[in-house]
């Protein structure tokens, strides 16, 4: 991010837009005073909060990170929400009423001693927001706070944020690719580009005056849908993977979903949907052979087994590589190498093969070529997501399990990623996608398997 000049007045509610990788998350970290020092990068100019450098104004801003898993600090829900208040020196008799109110606001109806380890990704997102709200900051900074939430959760979180900023007069800066979610709340839209601010003003005016140009640059503009892939070329093929009376668990002894029967077909897409906490990610990891079933079975048929046996959980890592690829909900959990190119080479190298043409193709298709020598951890959230998809595809698996595959994508990269998934589906790959993105389900012509919320 460079050449950025702007002023945000107290009490403004700003929606920060821009293409994937335009610097939105970097700006939020800078506003929160946690961007890092000279040893982590270079900076010029000044950034002031209440007239003082942002790094000296810590505590004035509450930040919800793009990856909520990275923001979980303590083992129990109540303690985690209270952490920020305690660090600000809020009197103890005020902390716990704030904690209870914040959890209620974000719709996280769990006991205060509930384990944070047992939370789903969407629940961790609500937890991080509750921690920020409880601090009652003057500046509330939200980085894609609804990305992993079910539709009801999106509305609930948006309304809780609106109530918070209204009650305390807070300034709000929110990053979200899906513009329509926040239009009822925000008073200003700022769009970042390669050279600073490329559009700024009231939402209706910016979207009407600049809509076509912004959509061409990747911004999700209401009324201008992204390009969609064509319908499947083939009918679903043979069953590669099935679940029979399956129960799954994230933490040993705590079943999150049970009685699951489903089939995964070659050359087709299966979408696992349902509310936060219903067990979607846990089911995906169990189907992928990365978690043992709590009960029941996951069975690979002969075309997928290829001599490895019927139970994916018993396969060696090398056997999984070419049979079932997995894209985790949190990209950081599967980054291993020092450069983007090396990340794509991890799987092929483990198989003893060298496929530079395949690596170059994936880098190009997913707009990562210019970042080939960058450290994966320095990428934006959307770029990390595309990198993990590319890494899973590098070994050409027969089944691909993707958890929230379109997280962090602008309209252009969303269309390109979905188009690539449609192509590999047509080439015979079985797709299993865990998603709240209804557009992905329809674009891939996916069959739905809906999980219900745990009582």
Describe, in plain words, how this protein is organized in 3D.
By secondary structure, the chain is α/β, with parallel strands linked by helices. The protein has 2 domains: 13-216, P-loop containing nucleotide triphosphate hydrolases (Rossmann fold); 239-450, 3-Layer(aba) Sandwich (Rossmann fold). The protein contains 14 helices and 16 strands. A 6-stranded mixed β-sheet has the order 4-5-6-1-7-8, sandwiched between helices. α2 (77-87) packs across α3 (92-106), α2 (77-87) runs parallel beside α4 (121-134) and α10 (340-350) packs parallel to α12. The longest helix is centred in the middle third of the chain and has 18 residues, at 151-168. The model has no long low-confidence stretch (mean pLDDT 92).
